[in-house]
Amino acid sequence: MRKVRITVLKTTLDKELAEEYGVPGLSTCPFHKPGQVFYADYAKPEGLCDEAWKAIYQYVFALAHGVDGPFYYSDWIREKGVAICSCNDGLRPVIFKLEATDEESVPQ
């Protein structure tokens, strides 16, 4: 099993939906900032949002176990061993880049 690097690419806010459904003053995710990096394999890395982990763990698991793509029908990501995913917050999703590494994972 390999470690997977999780990089926060972007935090977003859908202003139209936030104005209609969000609490006053809602802004981008308070937990993650672009450039943050986490490493994972079989378990959620410390500091990563629980809801984000629920949305991306299946890709982390696949990459950690050697699946290098292409995911779906070759119509998504052009680079093998990479997935671009987002958390499931519909008002302020965070975009993550998942990359398989050559670093072996050792269960603790």
Give structural attributes.
28% strand, 20% helix, 4 strands, four-stranded antiparallel β-sheet, 108 residues, 2 helices, alpha+beta
Question: Can you describe this structure in just a few lines?
Answer:
With 108 residues, the chain is of the alpha+beta class. 20% of the residues lie in helices and 28% in strands.
Description:
The chain is of the alpha+beta class and 108 residues long. The protein is 20% helix and 28% strand. It has two helices and four strands. It has helices at 15-21, 50-64; strands at 2-11, 37-40, 82-86, 94-104. The protein has a four-stranded antiparallel beta sheet with strand order 2-1-4-3, with helices on one face. Strand 3 and strand 4 (94-104) form a beta hairpin. The longest helix is centred in the middle third of the chain and has 15 residues, at 50-64. The chain starts with a strand and ends with a strand.
